[in-house]
């Protein structure tokens, strides 16, 4: 084609709807236009939603192979193989249900090809309900709600920046009562804020939902990334699993997988735990959505969940990620980023840019400028989950940013050095 020839118009979508990029996907798309690719040595992805995946101090050797058996070439059960589901059930019983009469069994587990798919199945299985969700929260919830808008009525419960976006059981249960919520969805630990409901407060939430007949859906994908307020590694993971009175009667769904806690995002293995009747329904949704998880990936998961390996891995995660959390918090505070409540979980910091020099006090401007320095971040507006864009006006998170300390320490340091140079040049 000659340089002067007119460009063809973009292909029309036809019957397709306009599907927006969500959060990290938008960030990666824009960075890729500037030469970014995963693992590129000259880019710093302080927006990434996955943890570092390589060798790490204190962690066991990375899994590098898996046996392929003849049956792995066939379709597997929609909710996962018996062996995989029994392994996940045993993992939870060992960590959270020791000495309790009610124990998880394979029937209480539904496997899926990753966490987002597990959550997609949950959304597809919900009936005509008012479902509450917190703000800010995981970006992908927005389109999940949208796909089922004829049945689901999402009701936002907005956190208060003055108290660090802390959610209490009292606050959430009051919202259930005020709005007649049949279901409540939240990431706990929370992506993006790093807040976590735990201990007695989490028990009060589980008890309160039980008393009201409200189905509690907890996205626990960051359950092992737990730190003290002072930035030391937490003593162990956080889950609602210890607070279930009766696994078969408590309408509590726990969603997790290998992606974050075991640092195997590429395995695409997730699961849901809950009453066996609900797990059967979730498996049925898979018949029209995905057809069930890979047998091969499930076989790899068996090795990752072996008790000694799993405990060594997750303990190392808390130690090594606490170091990166503390470094990032110190460096960003020195630049003027404000953190009303430092992260106590996940591998994210949720900070306000309001005190930075203009125009860097606007998250989208900060994002574009940081890309010029080959640093990726995620503007806060993406976590303002707004199904159907029914709420109008500017997002209250236009000056907030999610910073990830998911990359290796050296890459985190390099990214912080570049952000420091960018901010100092603007002063």
The class by helix and strand makeup works out as alpha/beta
Strand content: 5-15%
Low-confidence stretches: none
Q: Into which percent range does the helicity of residues fall? A: 25-40%
What's the helix and strand layout?
Elements: H1 24-32, E1 44-45, H2 82-96, E2 109-112, H3 115-125, E3 129-135, H4 141-146, E4 152-158, H5 169-179, E5 183-187, H6 199-212, E6 215-219, E7 252-257, E8 270-273, H7 276-289, H8 295-304, H9 307-335, E9 348-352, H10 363-372, E10 375-376, E11 378-379, E12 400-404, H11 409-426
Give a short overview.
This protein is an alpha/beta fold.
Give an account of the 3D structure.
The protein is built from 11 helices and 12 strands. It has 427 residues and is of the alpha/beta class. It has 2 domains: 24-56 and 311-426, Aspartate Aminotransferase, domain 1; 71-310, Aspartate Aminotransferase, domain 2 (3-Layer(aba) Sandwich), CATH 3.40.640. The protein has a 7-stranded mixed β-sheet, sandwiched between helices. A 3-stranded antiparallel β-sheet has the order 9-12-11, covered by helices on one side. Strands 1-10 form a two-stranded parallel ribbon. Helix 3 (115-125) packs across helix 7 (276-289), helix 5 runs parallel beside helix 6 (199-212) and helix 9 runs parallel beside helix 11. It is globular. The N and C termini lie far apart (47 Å).
């Amino acid at each position: 084609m000659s340089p002067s020839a007119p460009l063809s118009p973009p292909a029309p979508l036809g019957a397709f709807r306009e599907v927006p990029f969500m959060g990290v996907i938008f960030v990666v798309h824009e960075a890729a236009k500037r030469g970014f690719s995963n693992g590129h040595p000259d880019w710093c992805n302080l927006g990434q939603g996955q943890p570092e995946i390589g060798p790490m101090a204190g962690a066991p050797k990375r899994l590098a192979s898996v046996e392929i058996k003849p049956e792995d070439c066939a379709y597997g059960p929609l909710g996962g193989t018996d062996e995989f589901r029994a392994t996940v059930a045993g993992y939870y019983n060992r960590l959270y249900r020791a000495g309790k009469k009610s124990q998880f069994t394979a029937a209480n587990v539904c496997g899926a090809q990753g966490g987002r798919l597990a959550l997609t199945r949950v959304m597809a299985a919900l009936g005509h309900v008012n479902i509450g969700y917190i703000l800010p929260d995981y970006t992908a919830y927005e389109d999940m709600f949208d796909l089922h808008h004829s049945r689901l009525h999402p009701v936002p419960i907005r956190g208060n920046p003055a108290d660090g976006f802390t959610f209490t059981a009292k606050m959430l249960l009051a919202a259930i009562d005020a709005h007649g919520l049949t279901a409540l969805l939240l990431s706990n630990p929370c992506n993006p804020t790093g807040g976590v409901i735990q201990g007695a407060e989490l028990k009060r939430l589980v008890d309160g939902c039980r008393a009201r007949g409200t189905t509690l859906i907890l996205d626990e994908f960051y359950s092992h990334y737990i730190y003290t307020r002072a930035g030391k590694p937490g003593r162990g993971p956080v889950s609602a699993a210890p607070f279930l009175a009766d696994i078969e009667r408590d309408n509590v769904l726990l969603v997790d997988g290998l992606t974050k806690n075991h640092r195997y995002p590429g395995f695409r293995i997730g699961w849901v735990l809950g009453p066996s009747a609900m797990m059967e329904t979730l498996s049925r949704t898979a018949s029209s959505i995905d057809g069930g998880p890979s047998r091969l990936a499930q076989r790899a998961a068996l090795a990752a969940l072996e008790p000694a390996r799993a405990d060594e891995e997750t303990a190392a995660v808390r130690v090594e990620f606490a170091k990166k959390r503390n470094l990032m918090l110190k460096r960003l505070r020195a630049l003027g980023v404000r953190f009303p409540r430092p992260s106590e979980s996940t591998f994210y910091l949720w900070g306000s840019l309001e005190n930075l020099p203009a125009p860097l006090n606007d998250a989208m401007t900060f994002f574009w400028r940081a890309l010029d320095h080959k640093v990726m971040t995620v503007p806060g507006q993406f976590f303002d989950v707004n199904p159907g864009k029914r709420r109008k006006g500017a997002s209250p998170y236009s000056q907030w940013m999610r910073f990830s300390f998911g990359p290796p320490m050296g890459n985190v340091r390099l990214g912080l050095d570049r952000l420091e140079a960018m901010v100092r040049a603007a002063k």
